[in-house]
Amino acid sequence: MDTAAAASAQQPDTRREAIRVEDLHKSFGDLEVLKGVDLIAHQGDVVAIIGGSGSGKSTMLRCINFLETPTSGKIVIGGEEVAMRADGSPASQKQIERIRTKLAMVFQQFNLWTHRTLLENVIEVPVHVLKVPKAEAIERARELLVRVGLGGKEDTFPAYLSGGQQQRAAIARALAVDPSAMLFDEPTSALDPELVGEVLTVIRDLAAEGRTMLLVTHEMKFAREVANHVVYLYQGRIEEQGPPAELFGNPQSERLKQFLSSVG
Amino acid sequence: MITVKALMQPHRIVMMLLFAALIIWCAFSLRWDWIPQYAPLALQGLWTTIWLLVVTTVLGFLLAVPLGLAQAIGPWYLATPARVFCTIIRGTPLLLQIWLLYYGLGSLFPQFPWIRSSELWPYLRQAWPYAVLALTLSFAGYEGEVMRGAFSSVAKGQLEAAKSFGMPRFTMFRRIWLPQAVRNVLPTLGGETILQLKATPLVATITVVEIYAVSSRVRSDTFIVYEPLLLLALVYMVLAGLIALAFRRFEGV
Prior knowledge:
The structure holds two protein chains of two kinds. Helix content of chain A is 35%, strand content 24%. By secondary structure, chain A is α/β, with parallel strands linked by helices. In chain A, a hairpin with a 2-residue loop joins strand 9 (229-234) and strand 10 (237-242). The longest helix of chain A is centred in the last third of the chain and has 16 residues, at 193-208. Chain A is globular, with a radius of gyration of 18 Å. Chain B is an all-alpha fold. Chain A binds chain B through residues 65, 67, 93, 96-105, 107, 109, 111-115, 124-125, 128-129, 177, 183, and chain B through 155, 157-158, 160-169, 171, 175-176, 179-180, 183.
């Protein structure tokens, strides 16, 4: 892992920007969940976002692809700024749909489409959104399913699989759109402890091949191992960020110290 | 699955023998000699019942989808009329709806010369368009309510996943939302289709000759009361059974 890249806060980084978030605010009614968050992820970065529950980490991730409508701020994906109305909603449905096809999301609850088999889940977006020829999409989907260790399960419905298998299938579905960045929203939080490892292995492989990823996680050991940049959120603000070795090895803020000791 | 062995229990054998005796008694001591004479009419009536059922359930369902969608997520100016429509349909007897349409619209139309001279007039002066309309609206009213629940019951994450991959809204509706909603309510829809079958005899009251009307005709012509009704019950049971089987196959998918 290129840890030098993580020092982006100090040195100007010449790699292409994948995701830029500027001064992001999000309120649910009177409750302000994000109070001005800035974040830059370059191509190939693996950014881990950590924090206690209610710190706003999932909300931040969901604002990036506008699953949540930000209250204000600026979001730039691959150099293209998402046009926003005054209320924070995307100004152009076309634009946001196009941008979303480049950002593949993996959910805590997997959210595989329950009425379709694994293969159908994986080819759904390529065939019906990206208009890839079906035969080509099927061939690629089979490869991806083999890659995440689900070869032979093509015709199985999600309900017949374990959580770990479903999550790996969800990762295959995300890979099928050939995303420029992947958003992981607590991908192992809904899994039984013995199933966490198999999913982390798949994510680790993706990190190793240089995929750009934003990873909201509770797995501190894993974050330290795969991320090249870690962001600690506390009550809607970035309390501390930096390379994992520094952040975990030598936390500066009291809150982060407390948080790290509490999660062990 | 029912196995032969399971049927070979003493109490079941007795039941089956009793049933067989009943059938044999019906076959030999009741009057069935009217059947050959009325068979062609009965087949026509059966066909009318079947197409009425198919056409009105299909059209009614197509209408129920927007009615349900409007109530589930529509703005108030769509949701309110949809709710009012469903409430009125579900709150009034179907017989009344059929009569209101047939005697109401049916007597209103001839007062307009442009309707009388239109291409549609040869149809509008018959009874079946009013039967189709009334049964369709009725099915739409009930199923609109069912579909409202069906659309709301689809897990939010399923739609979020589609959204997060940039799926356009109509594609999402067609590929994810509608199929899942329909799957969730298939058992209900099967039951409602059988109810719709059993609602079709009401159109006999506005002179549409379906299978029930044929049995009435036999009764009034020949004064044979029980036999046509027994046969009629059998016909409806077979049709209902076929519908149930068809829906069970859909659900199995």
